[in-house]
Amino acid sequence: MLPTRSSRSVRQHGEALAGQWGMIPPGATDRVPRSKTTGRPLSTNNARRETVATAWTFRFPWARGQRCLIPAWWYQEPYWGISHTDLMTSTPKSIPWHFRRADGEPWALAGLWSEWTDPSTGEVLPNYTMLTQNCDGHLVLGLMHRPEMNQTADRQDKRSVVPIERAD
User: What are the residue ranges of helices labelled H in 6-165?
Assistant: First the structure.
């Protein structure tokens, strides 16, 4: 799925709804979120679990309990497969790793949803974001994403989506 493209999320009572992946901040004038200072597109595809309650784009849907489940057959993370110190001596490249459930069922990824009204057309556009959490201590997920050269191993911020089990 690509940001700002329509895909499906599940919300309230199992209702499946097509929406834009990439949450549109309150007061935005365009469906592509942009920085107020630089005008550059913002990445609102993911919301950090630790700051979702205070981040401008996500705090209102979070406070209103607008949680959703995002169905996905797999998700992808970039595997680096090198230690932090190897960055100084090599030209690292990532390898995309696809994560699938062992039982073959789709994932249910934790997310937030909102609705945005286009000020020029009045169209109501459902939109959503995936919650992510730090997974530095995880044996496999801690190897994903590019190591930050200016951070020690204990200060890396390796993140991944939050899968929700069917029973939960």
Answer: 56-63
The pLDDT, as a whole number, for residue 104 is: 93
Convert the pLDDT of each residue in 6-49 to its tens digit: 555 555 566 778 888 999 988 888 888 888 789 888 889 999 99
Sign of CA dihedral 131, 133, 139, 143: positive
Q: Which two tokens stand for residue 80?
A: 């680096």
What does pTM read for this prediction? 0.78
DSSP 84: G
Q: Give SS3 for 167.
A: coil
Residue pLDDT, tens place only, 57-82: 899 999 999 999 999 999 998 887 65
Measure Cα distances from 75 to 46, 48, 84, 163 in Å. 13, 17, 24, 10
Contact 67, 9 (CB under 8 A): no
To which residue do tokens 């205070």 refer?
54
CB 78 within 8 A of CB 43: no
15-21 and 6-11 as β-strands: parallel, antiparallel, unpaired?
antiparallel
DSSP 8-state assignment for residue 97: E
**Look-up: residue for tokens 């201590």?**
137
